[in-house]
Amino acid sequence: MISKINFTDVNPISNRETSLIKKDLYYTIKNKDFILGKNVKRFENNFSKLSKIKYSIGCASGTDALILALKSLNIKKADEVIVPAMTYISTGLSVLLNNNKLVYADIDNSTGLISIENIVKNITKKTKVVIPVNIYGQKVNLRKLREKIGSKIFIIEDSAQSHFAFSCFNCKSKTKKICCKKEKNDQYADISCYSFYPAKNLGAYGDAGLVATKSKKIYKKLLSLRNLGSIKKHDHNLLGMNSRLDTIQAAILLEKMKIFPEELHLRNAIAKKYTNNLNQYFTCQHVPDGYESAWAQFSILALNSKERSIFMKKLKDSGIPTAIYYPKPLHLQEAFCNLDYALGDFPVSESISQRIFSLPMHPYLTDDNINKICEIIISCKELVE
């Protein structure tokens, strides 16, 4: 008998991790160490060590991480920030909440990542920041992006879905580690932003986020910005935010991070099994050579929205959940309707949004789970044709 299949698994920690979390929570409560407590700093240090980014600053959410990153760069109201048209709303929202001009670029048809060529076409004298989004767990080619845009434009990497994914263009080894020593994560990005929303690859038990940077100057500014513009109590040097990482969430993330390398390995193995089974029937999520995805989702493309609806209904009727990332590009969202974009402006984003859907993806899917999912969707594909 095949067990229930979850789209994602937010509680897959062992009894050992549960015991350690309880211990950390007890310490936090006993010592009333709630705000910017000991475990926040421990988590920040451990995250920096694992990601090989020098400075890490915990904050309240992934959205806040993006806003804090923009605030730290002193960009002006009329300055332009380029983001992909196909992403979660937080990427675009952060730009507008920081009172900057939001500019979209279309995405690449094969990866779903922001098109570097389209970024270049949209650069003007007012362009100050590009926010490439590592969507579905894949990393944007930041080296190529930096070569194309030069050193004067900031890069804020939105890594909300790509914890510890990496790129390695120099290493010829087939054995890939979480972070390649020859291609540091912070080598091309000025700032990287992370979310630890519960459904993320590395998820807390509530909202949490983090900003990482190689710059000591930016780091010191972020420490103040996340804490109401203050480093010393009652002494405020900046107009900051109340966006401190909760110590309890930091304690949970500390323990979950210990099992994350193994989970990342399992995600890649599951993605490979999906690809081997489905590649001849569907356009599957593409990861270029030289990259290792964090596989936040495993997504495939139907021929059109009607076919997608048929597949998703068949899977739902069989007890298998699916999701769409994302059903509507940012330029078609009502919240952004005053930005003078229209249907047809970003054809790749619009096409993929009508065809893409994601299958269950988490480290604890069994071979029986994967085989069942693939059998149902392949049989449905054959009937549709």
Explain how this protein is built.
With 385 residues, the protein is an alpha/beta fold. The chain has two domains: 15-253, Type I PLP-dependent aspartate aminotransferase-like (Major domain) (Aspartate Aminotransferase, domain 2); 259-384, Aspartate Aminotransferase, domain 1. Helix content is 38%, strand content 14%. The protein has helices at residues 15-30, 38-51, 62-71, 89-97, 116-122, 142-149, 216-225, 247-278, 305-317, 347-355, 367-384, and strands at 55-59, 80-84, 101-105, 127-130, 154-158, 166-167, 191-195, 209-213, 230-232, 235-236, 283-284, 291-292, 298-301, 356-359. Helix 4 (89-97) links the parallel strand 2 (80-84) and strand 3.
Low-confidence parts: 172-182
Name of the CATH homologous superfamily of the largest domain: Type I PLP-dependent aspartate aminotransferase-like (Major domain)
How many extended strands?
14
How far the N terminus sits from the C terminus, by CA atoms, comes to 30 Å
Question: What is the count of distinct domains?
Answer: 2
Question: What's the helical proportion of residues?
Answer: 25-40%
Write the CATH architecture name of the largest domain. Answer: 3-Layer(aba) Sandwich
Specify Rg, calculated over alpha carbons. 21 Å
CATH class of the largest domain: Alpha Beta
Beta-strand residue percentage? 5-15%
Indicate the structural class.
Answer: alpha/beta
Quote the average pLDDT: 91
Largest sheet: 7 strands, mixed
Task: Provide a short characterization of the protein structure.
By secondary structure, this protein is α/β, with parallel strands linked by helices. It is built from 11 helices and 14 strands.
